[in-house]
Design goal:
Elements (H helix, E strand, L loop, with lengths): L13 E8 L5 H10 L25 H6 L6 E8 L5 E8 L7 H7 L5 E7 L6 H12 L4 E6 L8 H14 L4 H4 L3 E5 L4 E3 L13 H10 L12 E10 L3 E10 L1 E2 L4 E7 L5 E7 L3 E5 L2 E4 L3 E2 L3 E4 L10 E3 L17 E7 L14 H12 L6 E4 L5 E6 L2 H13 L4 E3 L3 E2 L2 E3 L2 E14 L3 H10 L3 E8 L3 E9 H4 L2 H8 L5 E11 L11 E4 L3 E2 L2 H7 L3 E3 L6 E2 L3 E6 L5 E3 L29 H7 L4 E5 L4 E5 L4 H20 L1
Parallel strand pairs: 1-3, 1-4, 4-5, 5-6, 28-33
Antiparallel strand pairs: 2-3, 6-7, 8-9, 8-17, 9-16, 10-15, 11-12, 11-17, 13-14, 13-16, 18-20, 18-21, 18-22, 19-20, 21-34, 23-24, 24-26, 24-27, 25-26, 28-32, 29-31, 30-32, 32-35, 34-35
């Protein structure tokens, strides 16, 4: 066993810092550079761990590397020899930047004593910047501002610093937080400077950021002599030792084999106390964990050997079972129905297909995904799953797909709230940076969905920065249309702002769909005939079934078509026999666009190898009867 790794010697020489920012502002790249320049790793050791489209080290999950975003919060520890000739131990916590993964940010901020707020030198504070900064201020963390990407040609660091100050004022920050230190950097270039403009800045390194952490992030304010209190903020799992709890020691000290009281706080405020014993005690060293014989208050650690450990639980001294306050996370805003796949292709591509297996998988997800909620649906084969957004639930679905699960899901539904007897819905701040020539189209699309513009200003010579207020309901399906209107150049972000009374009906899809009437293999002859009707989602050779959505109709109604029709063969010569027919490329829908595309009478069918859209009622006659029944009910309600 490795002895206690408290190399810094005392609590005063520890720093716990969280890196927070808006998505794509360079948090993970900054953490990677801090690791590379910390001097704690051998040459080439970290380069072996790089991967994904940006060669990132901390984003180690396959989905993170594919999409180029941080999904899970992670932490590492480095020793830094500062300018005052003292070695400090720095725990660095990397957090997600997307609003849908805000639950990860909320639960890990309690592990930190300060934060680095990373802001893009061109974009400035964005919706998620406001969200993460408000959570950090609520935890009493004082920000150190890092203006990243200062090497961009259109960078304007002075404007960004002023915007951060205005944001802190708007959030009601205290005077000491308004006097924030600023470091100017390029995480990609591997340099940082304390002042801007700076001469020969590209010859610099990341030392100014380390020095800012040492100087401005306070050491943990803890009591070593008091009884043990350790709160679990993250969970990991090992096939050898089972569940691993990760958290911060708030007071006292923890050792392997130590008897502890596991205290759970129930929703009604009552406590459940269980006696337990620490198995292995793991301290963080670099990117990994090593066994330690003691971890003192103010440091982060991982513990094993305790059954039933959950996020928010407190490990206490058995004689003083005094838990810390529960981890509070904002409520979900979007729900979907997860159900078994009952299509004709059910069970052909997936390994786990039953409702029992889907339920067990969702229960496992609830153990560490604190922003998720799962309820029983109308039947035993359905589950109502609620999360922070379409991307939040989409990542869960994509993970389940890759694990071999097969299921179908319904359209995202915004969760409404009743306040003083009136139905309210979430209102969000929408920020769109688009080319100047696309501003008109973007404003028209947002205006059609009852969005209101709050601010519009130029950003450089070619980009316009637009800020809107729009309901969460109206946002579903908007991203794809904004991207089409701007030829894929728009950057769109949104975050929850407040609840407002429900107004108007939900925005519906303008176009109908093409629905297959026969099962079989798609033929080129049928595709050629169907191209005049709209855009196809399938290509020749694909297997389809009756009731599957195979394309988008160019009119507002659904159109049944025979996409498996064969060309009639006879002995008559054809004048255009040798003509070459070029088929249009089909539209490939990935998971999140497919979820936003469907209507209430449709489902997205997910298997490990395919994503299909289908009608809830596969039989055409049943769909017509249901449509007539809905019209009759609407007429009766109108008369009443």
């Amino acid at each position: 066993m490795t002895p206690s790794i408290q190399t810094a010697g005392s609590v005063a020489l520890r720093r716990n810092v969280a890196i927070i920012a808006h998505v794509d502002h360079g948090k993970t790249t900054l953490v990677d550079q801090l690791l590379l320049q910390s001097g704690n790793f051998r040459a080439g050791e970290l380069e072996k761990l790089q991967g994904g489209q940006h060669d990132l080290i901390m984003d180690s999950n396959p989905l993170e590397r594919e999409r180029g975003i941080t999904i899970l919060s992670k932490n590492c520890a480095v020793s830094y020899h500062a300018a005052d000739d003292i070695t400090y131990r720095v725990n660095i916590i990397d957090t997600p930047g997307h609003a849908d993964f805000g639950g990860e940010v909320e639960r890990v901020l309690r592990m930190a004593d300060g934060c680095l707020l990373v802001v893009d030198a061109f974009e400035g504070p964005m919706p998620q910047t406001r969200f993460v900064l408000s959570k950090a201020l609520a935890e009493g963390l004082r920000p150190v501002v890092v203006v990243n990407k200062c090497d961009r040609p259109d960078a304007d660091p002075d404007r960004v610093v002023n915007e951060v100050f205005d944001l802190l004022v708007a959030l009601g920050a205290e005077d000491d937080a308004l006097d924030f230190p600023v470091v100017y950097a390029s995480a990609k270039g591997g340099w940082s400077v304390p002042e801007w403009p700076a001469d020969n800045h590209e010859a610099g390194d990341m030392r100014p950021i380390f020095e800012a952490i040492i100087r401005h992030v306070p050491h943990p304010d803890v009591y070593l002599e008091k009884p043990l209190r350790l709160q679990i903020t993250s969970l990991d799992y090992s096939e050898y030792v089972g569940r691993i709890g990760i958290g911060r020691v708030h007071q006292g000290a923890i050792k392997p084999g130590l008897p502890v009281a596991l205290v759970k706080l129930n929703p009604d405020g009552s406590q459940k106390v269980t006696n337990a014993k620490i198995g292995k005690l793991l301290a963080f060293e670099g990117l990994g964990r090593i066994e330690s014989d003691r971890v003192d208050a103010g440091d982060l650690c991982a513990v094993t050997g305790i059954d039933g450990l959950d996020i928010g639980d407190t490990l206490c001294d058995p004689d003083h079972p005094d838990p810390l306050p529960a981890v509070t996370v904002d409520e979900p805003t979007v729900s979907m129905i997860f159900r078994i796949n009952d299509s004709p292709f059910a069970g052909k591509e997936g390994q786990y297909v039953t409702s029992r297996q889907i339920r067990a998988r969702l229960e496992r997800e609830l153990e560490h995904n604190v922003a998720l909620r799962v309820e029983n649906g109308q039947t035993s084969d359905e589950f109502i799953v609620s999360g922070r957004g379409v991307l939040h639930l989409g990542i869960l679905l994509e993970t389940m797909r890759r694990e071999g699960y097969e299921l179908s899901v319904g359209r995202p539904i915004v969760i409404e709230k009743e306040i003083d007897g009136v139905r309210h819905e979430p209102l969000e701040e929408l920020v769109i940076d688009c080319p100047n020539d696309a501003v008109g189209a973007v404003m028209q699309l947002v205006g059609e969905r009852k969005g209101e513009m709050r601010k519009m200003e130029p950003r450089g010579e070619e980009i316009t920065h637009c800020v809107f207020e729009i309901t969460s309901r109206a946002l579903i399906g908007l991203r794809g249309r904004i991207m089409t209107a701007s030829q894929g150049e728009a950057i769109m972000h949104h975050t929850f702002e407040k609840f407002v009374p429900v107004t108007g009906d939900r925005v519906k899809r303008i176009s109908g769909v093409l629905v297959a009437t026969e099962s079989g293999q798609v033929t080129g002859h049928a595709c050629e005939a169907a191209h005049d009707r709209g855009v196809l989602f399938v290509r020749p050779g694909d297997q389809v079934y009756a009731g599957q959505v195979v394309g988008e109709h160019n009119r507002g109604n659904d159109l049944p078509i025979n996409i498996v029709r064969l060309k009639k063969l006879d002995n008559m010569r054809s004048a255009n026999k040798e003509a070459t027919v070029t088929l249009k490329a089909p539209r490939d829908l990935s998971l999140e666009p497919a979820l936003e595309y469907i209507e209430s009478d449709e489902l997205v069918e997910l298997t490990p190898t395919s994503i299909r859209i289908r009608k809830r009622l596969l039989d055409e006659g049943a769909r017509r009867r249901a449509e007539r029944s809905a019209k009759d009910k609407a007429k009766e309600s109108a008369k009443a």
